[in-house]
Amino acid sequence: MSMLGSCLSDEQFQCSICLDLFVNPASTSCGHSFCMACINRHWDRAKVYQCPLCMKTFPKRPDLQINRTLREITDQFKAMRGGGGKGRERLGAVCGAMPGSFIDGLKRKIPRPLPKPPTKPNLEPTADPSLLATSMPSSSHGPHGPQPPPPPYRTGSGRRRFTVIGVGESLPICPIHHRGIMTYCRTDNVCICPECATEDHPDHDTVNIEVEWTHTKTQLTVSELEIQDMIRQRIKKIEEMKMSRAELEFAVERETAGSVSLFSKLVSAIERSQAELMEVMEMSRRAAEHQADVMIRQLELEVEELRRRETSLAELRQLDDALHGVKTFPTLSNHPPTKDWSVVSVNTDLGTGTIYRSLAAQVESFQNELKKVAETGFPAPVLEPSPPRTQPRIMRVQDYALDVTMDCNTAHPRLIVSENMRSVRCVDRPQMLPDNPERFDRVVCVLGRETISSGRHYWEVEVGGKTDWDLGVARQSINRKGKIDVTPSNGYWFLSLRDKNKYALRTEPSTDVHMSLKPQKIGVFVDYEKGQVSFYNVDSKLHIYTFNDSFSGCINPFFSPCTNKSGKNEGPLIVTPVTMTQ
To answer: Which of 39, 125, 155, 453 has its CA 20 to 30 A from that of 506?
Structure first.
């Protein structure tokens, strides 16, 4: 042991910042040496660049280089020192075999720590709590490799060494460098050890993991507040929906009472009109109530998801595991997908205006007939009441059935139109067809041959078995070449299906449609003067949606069977005859 003491000691090879043997040592102009990673991290947090030992101030940050001689000597010392007692025996043997002049020269090359300066700033390298907390990742692993934890002690020169025992006992160990994972790389969003920071992330934005966790907790609070605000907004919207549904019921009751009072004066002449009015209100009520139920259900599902996210954020905020918190927060901080409900409301329009106008015309005609009878002296004709019409609204629009066929000259080359021009399907390869101006060359669709410029028209299309399709009307003057933005402002009004059960209206932005019953046949009704395009589920006799717009110029039926998706969507769209059932 006396021979070992006369040779080299750990203190001569220790970095005064991390209190461990040098790793890639670098020397400042004042003659002091530190680990390259330690001095760089120390200066990264400093506003004034000073030597941590003698406090010499540098006008600008020194451009340090690795002291290769000191690194080689340190590596040799580590090799002689490693292995416990046997290492010490080898070290003693080496020291005994070395000439005294060589040992003296070797000692002169090694920078020795200076005595403790009289000023207090001498403790700056270890005064930073985050630096103390990360200086010992675990009781058995040092920052640069496995070694026993050194207790606080005083060196021969009088400087006190600061260490923290057990601070990093709960930190996991880097499987590559066997050091505590105590650093977070903001550039790559990954937790790393100091060696990884030096070797793989030298120019990245790295911070102590506890500092990052403190910052993350602040973000957690902000995310919780945002989620809570979203929940409040949706709960308020649910109440609005419920109030709208109640107002709808009251409106139906008021309209029913008013219509009974109005029609009682002319029961024998207007019984048919009264029945039609009641039918329209019932259908409007059912459609609006169905719409409200669907939207309320969607809102409740969003609230449930947001509450689950709120609970997860609250539980994460209570955790003391910084590593798990930092890893988990990016996933929870993204808000779950929700719909913008600020412009959504229940349609409370009962659609009775048309019936009232028709009734006014009947009353006026009835009054004219009464005046004529009063002037001529002939008795007024006895008006026999017509039987009330009991068929639902879908049967009434069938009175405007239009015989629709498809225009082959507009069909995309991948579309096959049947000989009777009433069905269309998509194939894998395009056909050799002339590229005439009216043909679509990018969107797989075809227009109907019938041009609509006035009046009311209705047709039905069979869609059963398909996973994707588009149906509606399009302006005759639309662009048919290249990419097309299919929105009402560009002359397209249609309903779409995607992936078997995702129904949507091509509005701006698109509007999702929930259907409890999957339609096998779609009815399309156009009222040109009113600017309306309506869609119906023919089998269940339910109204789906009505576009309200204004038409300019001619419009045509629009069909798109969409691509066949390797045979999964190869079924055709078929225009079927309208059945006039009672």
So the answer is: 453
CA dihedral 52, 53, 56, 59 (to 10 degrees): -20
Closest by CA position to 363, among listed 484, 270, 248, 246:
270
Find the Cα–Cα–Cα–Cα dihedral 547, 548, 549, 551, rounded to 10°. 80
- CB contact burial 399-421 (16+ within 10 A = b; e otherwise): eebbebebbbebbbbbbebeeeb
- Enclosing H/E stretch for 385: none
Cβ neighbour number for residue 574 with a 10 Å cutoff: 18
What is the band of 104 on the pLDDT scale with cuts at 50, 70, 90? low
In angstroms, the CA 341 to CA 339 distance is: 6
Instruction: In whole angstroms, give the CA distance from residue 405 to residue 95.
Output: 104
Tokens 């779609």 belong to residue:
522
pTM of the model: 0.37
DSSP letters along 392-407, please?
-HHHHHGGGB----B-
SS3 200: coil
* Mean pLDDT of all residues in 216-235: 92
- Output the pLDDT for position 294: 84
Q: pLDDT tens for residues 23-80?
A: 999 999 998 999 999 999 998 988 888 898 888 889 889 989 999 998 988 888 888 7
β-bridge mates for residue 190, sequence order? 185
Residue 192, strand partner residues = 183
Give yes or no for residue 392 having a pLDDT over 50.
Answer: no
Q: What letter would DSSP give residue 430? A: -
Q: Would you place residue 366 in the very low, low, confident or very high pLDDT band (cuts 50, 70, 90)?
A: confident
- Concatenating the DSSP letter of every residue in 272-321 gives HHHHHHHHHHHHHHHHHHHHHHHHHHHHHHHHHHHHHHHHHHHHHHH---
Torsion, CA 257, CA 258, CA 262, CA 268, rounded to 10:
-40
